[in-house]
C-alpha cells in the first residue's frame, strides 16, 4: 500500500480561532473539513512542504512552529502520516483553490465533519495529554491526599481504579474522590463498574475483557446518552476496533514498556503502537512504564499522550 506523508498546520487568529479548509469536489474525502496543508514532495523537508502548501493554498507566509501530533492512519487506498504543526503567519488566508474556509472556535472543532486522521488531531488540541490511573489504596486518607496532590500538579483526567478492594469501602472512596475531581473541574472515569459510574455521575473506563462481553453496548448506552466519557483498555487491534465500534471516546493501548504491574509482559514499543493506532480513528493514550517526559515521543507516534499509575501519581514521576 502506498505511503503518503502529509503536513498540515494549526493556524490561529488573534481570537484563538482555528482555520479549517473544506476539501473541494473531485478529490478524495471531498466536502470534509481539514487543517490546511498537503503532501510532502520527494526530497522536500516537512517544514518546506508546509510553507509551500500554505503559500499555494492560502497565500500566506508561514513560519513552522512546534509539533502538535503525527498521526499514522490507514485509509482504503493508502497509509497516511498526518504531521501537524503549529503555525505563525503573515498575510490574510484566502481559499486560492476555491476551497471554503472557516475560522472555528476551538470548542466547535469536533462539530466539523473531518477525515478519520483528524479526530486524534482535534483531541490533541482539546483534550488532556495525561490520564492518571489510580493505584489501589492502602490507607484511604493518604490515597485521597495523593489524589488531591496529583490534581494540584495539573492532571486533568483521572481513572478511579482499585482492583480487589472491598465493594462498600470502594464506593465510599469513589464518592469522596469524585467530589475532589469535580471541585478541580477534572474529567473522571470509573474502572469497570457501569452501575456505580451511573450512580455517581461520572464516565466509565472499560477493561479489555469487557469490550467483548455480550450486552456491553446496552450497558454503556445510558452513560453515553448522559454525555459521560467512555474509555477502553486495549492490548491489540481487535480491542481497538471493538472500542471504536462501541463508540468509545478514547482508548488506552499498551503495555508500551515493561512495567512493575505487568512484570511478565514485554512492552510493545513505539513502532508497534503506531502500527496499531493507524487502524482506528480514536484518540489513543499509550500506557506502560511512561512518565510525563514521554509525552513528546508519544505524540510523535500518534498518541494522545500517556496514561500511567506510578508515573503520574507520585510527584517524582518514577515509572510504574
Ligand atoms: N491537508 C490535510 N490533508 C488531510 C488532513 N486529514 C487527512 O486525512 N488528510 C488527507 C487527505 C488527503 O488524502 C491527503 C492530503 O492530500 P491532498 O490531495 O490534499 O494533497 P495536496 O494538498 O498536496 O494536493 P494535491 O495537489 O496532491 O491534490 O491527506 C488534514 O487535516 N489536512
Ligand atoms: Mg492540500
Automatic annotation (TrEMBL):
PROSITE patterns: NUDIX (PS51462), NUDIX_BOX (PS00893). InterPro entries: Aldolase_TIM (IPR013785), Mutator_MutT (IPR003561), MutT-like (IPR047127), MutY_C (IPR029119), Nudix_hydrolase (IPR020476), NUDIX_hydrolase-like_dom_sf (IPR015797), NUDIX_hydrolase_CS (IPR020084), NUDIX_hydrolase_dom (IPR000086). Mg(2+) binds at residues 37, 57. The keyword DNA repair applies. It catalyses: 8-oxo-GTP + H2O = 8-oxo-GMP + diphosphate + H(+); 8-oxo-dGTP + H2O = 8-oxo-dGMP + diphosphate + H(+). Its cofactor is Mg(2+). SUPFAM superfamilies: Nudix, Thiamin phosphate synthase. Gene3D superfamilies: Aldolase class I, Nucleoside Triphosphate Pyrophosphohydrolase. Keywords: DNA damage, DNA repair, DNA replication, Hydrolase, Magnesium, Metal-binding, Mutator protein. GO terms for biological process: DNA repair; DNA replication; thiamine biosynthetic process. Its EC number is 3.6.1.55. GO terms for molecular function: 8-oxo-7,8-dihydrodeoxyguanosine triphosphate pyrophosphatase activity; 8-oxo-7,8-dihydroguanosine triphosphate pyrophosphatase activity; 8-oxo-dGDP phosphatase activity; 8-oxo-GDP phosphatase activity; metal ion binding. It comes from the Bacteria. Residues 1-127 form the Nudix hydrolase domain. 8-oxo-dGTP binds at residues 23, 34-37. Belongs to the Nudix hydrolase family. NCBIfam families: mutt, PRK08999.1. PANTHER family: 8-OXO-DGTP DIPHOSPHATASE, NUDIX HYDROLASE FAMILY PROTEIN. This is 8-oxo-dGTP diphosphatase. It comes from Thermomonas aquatica.
Amino acid at each position: 500500500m502506498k505511503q503518503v506523508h502529509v503536513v498540515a498546520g494549526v493556524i490561529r487568529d488573534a481570537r484563538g480561532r482555528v482555520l479549517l479548509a473544506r476539501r473541494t469536489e473531485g478529490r478524495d474525502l471531498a466536502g470534509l473539513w481539514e487543517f490546511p496543508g498537503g503532501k510532502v514532495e520527494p526530497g522536500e523537508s516537512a517544514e518546506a512542504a508546509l510553507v509551500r502548501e500554505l503559500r499555494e493554498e492560502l497565500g500566506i507566509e508561514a513560519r513552522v512552529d512546534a509539533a502538535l501530533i503525527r498521526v499514522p492512519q490507514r485509509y482504503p487506498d493508502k497509509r497516511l502520516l498526518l504531521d501537524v504543526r503549529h503555525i505563525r503567519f503573515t498575510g490574510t488566508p484566502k481559499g486560492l483553490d476555491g476551497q471554503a474556509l472557516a475560522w472555528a472556535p476551538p470548542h466547535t472543532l469536533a462539530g466539523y465533519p473531518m477525515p478519520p486522521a483528524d479526530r486524534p488531531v482535534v483531541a490533541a488540541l482539546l483534550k488532556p495529554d495525561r490520564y492518571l490511573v489510580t493505584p489501589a489504596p492502602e490507607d484511604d486518607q493518604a490515597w485521597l491526599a495523593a489524589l488531591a496532590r496529583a490534581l494540584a500538579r495539573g492532571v486533568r483526567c483521572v481513572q478511579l481504579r482499585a482492583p480487589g478492594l472491598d465493594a462498600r469501602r470502594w464506593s465510599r472512596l469513589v464518592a469522596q474522590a469524585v467530589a475532589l475531581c469535580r471541585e478541580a473541574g477534572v474529567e473522571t472515569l470509573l474502572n469497570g463498574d457501569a452501575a456505580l459510574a451511573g450512580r455517581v455521575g461520572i464516565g466509565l473506563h472499560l477493561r479489555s475483557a469487557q469490550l467483548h462481553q455480550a450486552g456491553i453496548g446496552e450497558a454503556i448506552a445510558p452513560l453515553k446518552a448522559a454525555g459521560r466519557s467512555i474509555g477502553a483498555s486495549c492490548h491489540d487491534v481487535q480491542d481497538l476496533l471493538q472500542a471504536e465500534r462501541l463508540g468509545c471516546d478514547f482508548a488506552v493501548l499498551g503495555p508500551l514498556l515493561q512495567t512493575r504491574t505487568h512484570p511478565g509482559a514485554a512492552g510493545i514499543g513505539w513502532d508497534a503502537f503506531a502500527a496499531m493506532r493507524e487502524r482506528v480513528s480514536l484518540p489513543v493514550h499509550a500506557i506502560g512504564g511512561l512518565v510525563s517526559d514521554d509525552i513528546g515521543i508519544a505524540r510523535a507516534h500518534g498518541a494522545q499522550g500517556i496514561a500511567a499509575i506510578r508515573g503520574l501519581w507520585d510527584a517524582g514521576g518514577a515509572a510504574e
